[in-house]
């Protein structure tokens, strides 16, 4: 069954997809779902810190029968070459960082994708109205804060793809090649 998050990522066979963060089993399952589509001709790489994240990703990949690579690194300092990926997914990481590190995470995602590549942000949001006063399992981030981090990081265009069940999906476009090159 295709998840909403997977539909928003829009990965296709042969795509190279970078997933920043696997903070919970659902996030690891998303990486495995992406890898099951990108296949042997593509690549799905998850970057996160900690043995728990690695274990979640390996368990989800084995369950899905997919090939998912894992790299232990902070999402604000990726040990990757520029322009390696078609899509980068920032998966529930922005709320975990302060303003400067939030921008650094977005800068790294934008750097990792090819010129005119896509960055998809999946983040819990604070609900509006009375629902916003109720306690939540996950802290939320205002959608405008996520969009502002993407713009500050150099995204040339951003848009909201959807908001469903307390989760927002944003899309950003990386800059193309400069006129000097």
Write the topology of this structure.
Elements: H1 4-9, E1 16-20, H2 25-38, E2 43-48, H3 51-64, E3 69-72, E4 85-91, H4 99-112, E5 113-124, H5 143-152, E6 157-164, E7 167-173
Parallel strand pairs: 1-2, 1-4, 2-3, 4-5
Antiparallel strand pairs: 5-7, 6-7
3D architecture notes:
The N and C termini lie far apart (44 Å). The chain has a single domain, classed as Vaccinia Virus protein VP39 (Rossmann fold, 3-Layer(aba) Sandwich). It is of the alpha/beta class and 181 residues long. α3 links the parallel β2 and β3. A 7-stranded mixed beta sheet has the order 3-2-1-4-5-7-6, sandwiched between helices. The protein has 5 helices and 7 strands; from the N terminus they run αβαβαββαβαββ. The longest helix has 14 residues. The chain is globular, with a radius of gyration of 15 Å. The chain is 32% helix and 27% strand. α2 crosses α3 and α4 packs across α5.
Bin the helical content: 25-40%
* End-to-end distance: 44 Å
What value does the Rg take, in angstroms? 15 Å
Tell me the major beta sheet. Answer: 7 strands, mixed
Structural domain count: 1
Which fold name is given in CATH as the topology?
Rossmann fold
* The CATH homologous superfamily: Vaccinia Virus protein VP39
């Amino acid at each position: 069954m295709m998840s909403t998050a997977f539909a928003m990522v829009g990965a296709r066979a042969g795509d190279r997809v970078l997933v920043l963060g696997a903070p919970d089993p659902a996030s690891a399952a998303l990486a495995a779902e992406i890898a099951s589509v990108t296949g042997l001709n593509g690549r799905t790489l998850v970057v996160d810190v900690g043995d728990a994240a690695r274990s979640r990703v390996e368990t989800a990949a084995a369950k899905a029968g997919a090939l998912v690579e894992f790299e232990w690194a902070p999402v604000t300092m990726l040990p990757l070459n520029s322009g390696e990926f078609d899509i980068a997914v920032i998966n529930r990481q922005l709320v975990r960082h302060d303003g400067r590190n939030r921008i650094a995470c977005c800068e790294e995602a934008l750097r990792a994708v090819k010129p005119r590549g896509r960055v998809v942000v999946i983040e819990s949001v604070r609900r509006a109205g009375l629902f916003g006063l109720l306690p939540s399992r996950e802290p939320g981030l205002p959608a405008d804060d996520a969009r502002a981090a993407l713009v500050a990081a150099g995204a040339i265009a951003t848009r909201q793809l959807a908001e469903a069940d307390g989760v927002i999906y944003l899309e950003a476009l990386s800059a193309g090649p400069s006129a000097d090159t």
